[in-house]
Amino acid sequence: AQSVTQPDIHITVSEGASLELRCNYSYGATPYLFWYVQSPGQGLQLLLKYFSGDTLVQGIKGFEAEFKRSQSSFNLRKPSVHWSDAAEYFCAVGAKQAGTALIFGKGTTLSVSS
Amino acid sequence: EPEVTQTPSHQVTQMGQEVILRCVPISNHLYFYWYRQILGQKVEFLVSFYNNEISEKSEIFDDQFSVERPDGSNFTLKIRSTKLEDSAMYFCASSVSTVDTEAFFGQGTRLTVV
Which portions of chain A are predicted below pLDDT 70? Predict the structure, then answer.
């Protein structure tokens, strides 16, 4: 079955500390991987994506993610968290072809403490 | 920067009523999608649409749902007879027709069925 698992429902990080959000997937085809962020009351904003090539991808707002095929993982990282990063983060997997469904994880809520 | 726009941002309707959620995808995009997010749950795929027909739909997208591209700019989701469990945030998204591309999401319409 195709699925995305985000094992951490809620994470609290101190401002300035590093962050890693975990994502594991199960997908039958070559996966396209995404991280989206949702601030309260807002829509989904794409942070970064992996299609092919370099397994370490850079995104907006200083985020990066590493694709590890052997572990079926696509973890999101940021070296220094800012208070404005508090939001919900969704990992998603999809297929190469346009028009196919994205499968989302349940999300991880990030809180940032001062 | 081009964006997907959705109207209204919030709609309240009585159970059994029909609702139409509207979306204006990014102008050069050809694939269109609807997703929903029940409060506290993950984002779920409903349907994708290309060339005036449904490309893919999920089990959620039953006979009470329909989509339409009534003109060159709008993309609508109709729910014929709303139920309490249809209360959710509905996201529209669009993507270009080539591979190696991501879906761009709108801000969402929060539908509340009372």
Answer: none
